[in-house]
Each structure stands twice: as C-alpha cells, then as structure tokens.
Amino acid sequence: MSHDLSSPVQYIKGVGPQRAGLLSRLGITTIRDSLFYLPCRYEDRSSAKKIVHLSYDVFHTITGKVVSAEVVTPNPRRPRLKIFEVVITDGSGLLKAKWFNQIYLKRIFKPGQEVVLYGLVKRNYWGAGFELTNPEYEILDESDSASAPANSVQIHTGRVVPLYRLTEGLSQKQLRNIIHAVLGSSISSLEDTTPAEIIKALGLPGLQESLMNVHFPEASDALEDFNRGVSLYHQRLAFDELFILQLGLAALKRGEVLEKGIAFSPDGRSINRLLGALPFKLTKAQERVFEDILRDMRAPVPMNRLIQGDVGSGKTIVALLSMLAAVESGYQAALMAPTEILAEQHYINIHRLVEDLGLTIQLLTGSRKNKGLDTISSGNADIVIGTHALIQEGVSFKKLGLIVIDEQHRFGVMQRATLKKKGTNPDTLIMTATPIPRTLALTLYGDLDYSVIDELPPNRSPVITRQVYEKQKHSVYRLIEDEAKKGRQIYVVYPVIEETDKTNLKAAITGREAFQMKFPQLKVGLIHGRMKPAEREEIMREFKSGSIHILVSTTVIEVGVDVPNATLMIIIHAERFGLAQLHQLRGRVGRGGSQAYCILLSYGLTEDSKRRLDVMVKTNDGFIIAEEDLNIRGPGEFFGTKQSGMPDLKVANIVRDVKLLEAARKEAFSLMEKDPSLSAYPRLRNSLEDFWGKRLELFKTA
What's the confidence (pLDDT) of residue 394? Predict the structure, then answer.
C-alpha cells in the first residue's frame, strides 16, 4: 500500500506513537522526512567468513545454524543480570553470541534456524573460542516482523549496511527496519520535480533510484564514495537541493530586475574633485569595482551589489564615491553601520573628505536619534550615516536613492528591506570585510552581483604574525616595550571580560591590572561589551588620540575604529578564537605606514585550533583564510547560515560540492530566464515554495 508522503511517520508499520516521538527528535515527523534522513556512514558486511578463519578484534559477518539458544544468569549474587546466549555452527567450528538483558530474543532465535551475525570477534572467557557481544543479527529462514523485514531481504548483514545518527531509545536495527519499510511502501509516491532534461544532461540517476541506493547500496566497490557522500546517487540528491536553492535566488534576482529603479546620471564634478583632493591614487581594484557600481547605477533597475574586500582594502572610499554619484544625480544616500563607534568613524572620515564639496552630512545613532531628523526629511542632508536608528519609525528621507550597508552579516534580511522602504526602489550597495569564499557567496548572496577589491594600498606592509606559548611571555613584554618606545600603541585582546569558577581563561579586567603593574610608565585602558556605548566611545577616542598606550579589550574592537598608530596586536588565548575573528582582529593594526605585528598567545592547542593558528601565521590573505575556515568549520557554522535567512542544506556541502553548486546555479538561472513563472513546471514551483517557505516572495512583478 502506498502512503501519502506528508502523512505522520507513526502510521508506518512497526512505528506507532512511542517510536514516532523518538523519531521526531531526529527531525523525522513525516514519511517524506524518513525518506530523506540519510545514512551518516556505511559498513561493508558483505563478505561472510568461515568460523575457523575468523580473526580476533576484527569485525566479521558470519552465517551459520543455531545449535542452542538460552537465557543464563552468570552470577547468582546478581540475579537481575540475564544474558541471552546463542551458539551457531557453519560446519567449520562453533561461535557464541551474547546479548545482555535482552531476554526477549529467546522468542526470536530457535535451534535449527539459519542466521547471519555481525560484530567484533573477541576471545571467549577461556581464551580459546570465538565470541560476539551484542552483535547485529538477521534470521534467514523466517519473516516475522520482530526479526526480519518483509520478504526476508537482508538489510543488517551480508551487504553494505547503512548507519544512521540515532537518539537514545532507538537502535540502528530499528531505524534501518523503519526506513526499509518506508522505501517499500512509499518510494513510488515520490515525484521527481527537477526537470528531466537537466538531470539527463548532467548524467545523474533518477530520484527514486538514488534514494533506494543511498539507503541500501547494491555493491561495495564504491564504499569510499558512499562514505564521503559523493556517490552518483548522493550527487543527485545534493544537486536537487542546490538547484532549488539557486532557483529561489534566481527568482529573487528576477523580482529585482523587474522592479523599476533609478537611472542615475552623475556628471562627475564632485567625484573628480574628491579624487583630485585625495592624498593617494585609487588602486586598480578600487577603480574596477567603482566602474561596476557606476554601470549598475546608470541602469534603470535597482542595483544590488556586494562589495567584498579584505580589512584595509579601501571599501569606504569606493562607497563614498558611489554616494557622491547619487548626490550628483539629485538624490540622498544613506550608510548603515552595525555599531555607533563604526558609524561615528565613517562620519568623521567622510565629513573630513567632503566638507569642501559643499555637501551636508548627518549622523544618526541611538544616542542622538532625534537630532537632524528635519534635515533628513527636508532633503538638506545629502548623506546620512547611522546605525539601526536609520530604520526606526519617524526617520523619513525626501529622496533616498542609494543605501550602503556596512558589514552585511550583522544585519538581518528584514533590516535591509526596511531601509530600502525608506526610498522608492533605491540602489543597494553592501560592503563586507569578512572574506567569503566565492562558493559561499554564490549560496548566501546568489541574488546579488558580486565585486571583490582584491588589492591592498601600496603603502601597506603585511602584518607579521607569530604564535607563542605562555612560557615565552617575556618576548611579548619586550616587544611591547620596543613598540611603546617608538611611540606606537598596542591592543591586547582577551576572550572574556572577567574570570569565573567555571573557566580557567585569562580575563580582560584582571589582564588590565596586570599590564598596568608591569608597565607603570604607560597608560593602560580597558574596553568591553558591558560598558555603555558612550563609555566605550570615550575610551576609543582616548586611544585614537594617543593618550592611552595599551588598550586591553574583548572582541568589541573586532570591527572598529581606525587607529593608524597601533602597530601591535596581542591576542590572549588565541586558540579560543575563530579564524574569521582572528583575521578581523589582526586587521586593526598595520593601518599606518609602520610595520605591524600580531602575537597569538596560546595556552594548549586542539587539532582544529592548531590548524587555525598555522593558517594565521602563514598568510594575510583573507580569502585563503576564509577557505580554510570553511573547511574546518563547515558551511552552516562558518557564516551562521541558519541565522541569515537561507534554507538549511541537509545533503549538499558547498565546500565539497562546488562543481554541483555551479552547475545548479547555471541551470536554475537559465530556467528562470526561459520560464519566469515556472508555468511548465507546476510541481517544481510547489517544491520551490516548500523549500524556501516564507523566505521568498516568489515571482514579484513590476
């Protein structure tokens, strides 16, 4: 009997309400969920060995006839401990199997039955015979539901066997039986919604065939591919997921293309005046990216462009030139930053650069949120720089044409959309210093165009990075003294604010006291996230002015103020920080012309933390660092994709499956171009809406 795939899993034979509760812990609530709950690895149990040829401490599959089956109580003083023992023979010898406290097996095993056992072979108590403890088993000449699946198909032994992630109360054997039953009863109801011509062109197998083989592979020769998740059948399932993901992004992109936007027509006067006043020339990469932006801005559709550039690559000046292009065309521009410190830094830098151009700039943050609202709504403010305060009620623009969002990952999709609503389809420019590998950018920002500033200004020397251990602290103190004597400033970053009983981590508050005692001639400041914004800003102003020599902090300075005189970054417990964080922190130094240093002080390394610190020492290239970070952490954790509004990927891995991702993107965008409403593929459209849920307003029309 075929089942509706949306039916609760408890209606599958052998499940029921209690097991359904256990399955729900694994995310399996419907029959469809169980079909797509894939094995995490596979074991080859296909080659049975004669008992006489078995080896100790090796996993073996053994087929034989039951000689005896009985429950024993090995220790009279522990009468509650019962062991079910079975002895089997295959003509070459005897083998004993034991199960602890599973006396129900007495109803399953009977003398004379043919059985298959699989487990780790051990010596028996006397050191001579072979023994298995709690092995997996199958009864070959019986088909009652308690022991073997229907039709006596071997699924637990004598083949390549799937292993699944489990929850307490559910065994591999039980879950395997359930999934085998679902495949038998429901696989024929599964519709293949990916267009057949795409699957054929890519040489991939059908959906039903793929699921059957991913759960119960036919042969053992490609076991390594199955365990790596790259068998042809795994590739088919991964492609489906990536295709539906990219199709959603193509629909979003198409919705934006269909919207009517502003065709800006800057005359270049203020842009050229600014370029002439700068004390440096733009790098070739900055020029190329600005050309990309101008091309987008001149088109009559809304720009949605991501500008990616490493720390210090000069994204802000490119954003400012873009804002001037909007202002020259008669529009206002807004820049939204994630913190007050960063918003104020942008304001100070930009104000200084353009005050001679006769433009008005307004700062809008939480602590000054009602200042300048009239200037903004009247249109007198050409450029508005602010924090989340920009999207609050009561802030209105007369003619908002361009929005610039700094550090995109710190803002949700909804905040981006709310700011856009302050204008009429304004152009959007998103900047990030968090290096995102191209593969991940295609997934996270597939609806955006993408430019990279991949060149640092010529006066930048790479920061020299060294890893040191606690016993080498004296060399760190010497480096602090040397830099301080040259009039330079130092950051010292701690993982926590204060010490607690629960952790042995060094903390910022006690660290500040220790540094002040060690260097009484220097002024040591402290900044952390529990301070009020006004306090933090005051400390940063003092540090920027040079009155604080050593700034002890937590990661609040990760994205922060530009202090060109800071040349030394010391990260305490560097092993506790992520790669992206370490790279961002290092980017705080080396922003002037002097050689800068980053010291990674570690207190014991795991394998992963050693990999992270090794990468930091070897390279300053944010993209290489991001690729390695992605490999270490995996895509979900790397960029908080669970929080970014993207659907979860259950099968595909965008690091491993990059070629599939690119093929899926090409096919999805091509299909959306040919059939924007997917009218020829109604079932695909339904799948798209199911996969994306409420995240996607599909097929917006102009």
Answer: 84
